[in-house]
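Data availability excerpt. The first of two example chains:
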Amino acid sequence: MKILLVDDHFVVRQGVFIILNKILSNISIFQAETISKAFNYINNEFFDLLILDVHFPKGSSLELLGYTKIKTPKTKVLIFSGLNENKFALRYIHAGADGYLNKLSSEEELHTAIRTIIKNKKYISSSIRDQITDSILNKTPFNKLDALSDREMEVARLLVKGEGNIEIADCLNLSPTTVSTYKYRLFEKLQVNNIASLISMFNTYEKSL
């Protein structure tokens, strides 16, 4: 099995590398610390499994996820992130990920997640399944931020972090004008008028930025 591990933190990559070699056999692990390096790997190699973090200083994990599923549909993708799975899991599953796992999970749960998605099944934790069920039964929205598109969500998160239009444009490889358009759209969808209101909404629906 060929695995591509994409995370910008060396310690995380090394830790996962050790765990993968412990719980799996006959594997080859490639590592990328940036989205651009990961794109190069995907363009030149086939991987059975992509283990991908959510947040990077530059580049979009959602874009890499979508590209991978188009380029090599048989590649399984496990999102492995420190961001709160209650807030991000469904967005990435809807975008094509086969599973979502928090970095605080145990070795056993990582093993379970990999076994599950390799068998062509989706992996989400029981807490996420419970929230989905509650949302359906109570006919309430799971998360107001789900109204945003993937790109709008990326722009919103960077705005909340205090980044300006130029910095966001550089991070996501967009023009400042395009960033302004996304900003207008997400403000309209969330019915907020300023950054302070946006931050307040994120504090309500997103506890881990």
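And the second chain:
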Amino acid sequence: MMHIAQIQASDETGVKAPTRRALAKQQTRAKVLAAARRLFSEQGYEGATIRDIAAAAGMSTGAVFANFADKSDLFREIMTTDMLALAEAMTEAAAQGNGVEDSLQKVFAAGYRFYQTQLPLARAAFSVGWSPEDGPALRNAPPVQTMLNLISSQLERGVQGGELADGAASPLRTQMLFDAYLSNYDHAIFQGWAPEALQERSRDQIRILLAGVRRS
């Protein structure tokens, strides 16, 4: 009876219900991702192996490779998911800003709060991000470009609103602001800085980087 009801519901909505095989595959991927996230946080990217991840997920290495090409593919999916959520949080924060400087400060603060409870994973991301093999794919992931575009749009708003001089929204200044944002994670990861301290430092960085283009 339940099977018939599922078919009827599918026919009524025009959307086919996922098969048992598809559901099982989704559950397997979810288990692997959860186990991988935990081990990457605990052991770092290099320390966590596919064998360890499979064991933590309660399945064979073959099951892992049936869903992910390799360890870098697995890590990239975790980070892409996080960066998409981070970009969304930053976008919402920017909308609450009052002027270009305040908007950028709120954007950066949203990022620091996002990773406050998962700094070990952020440390693994930085390790992978600067590796010659796996780094380019992570650094050039679409969510990273979304963050750069967000910073650029705040600068452009500053130009249009008369706060900043023409040309302030240059790709170089955008990249320098993004690099300043990233650089502060070093203090959080290795020196234990709280988000408030990171925000204070980023506030000074933003002021310095905007000083030469601010209209008096």
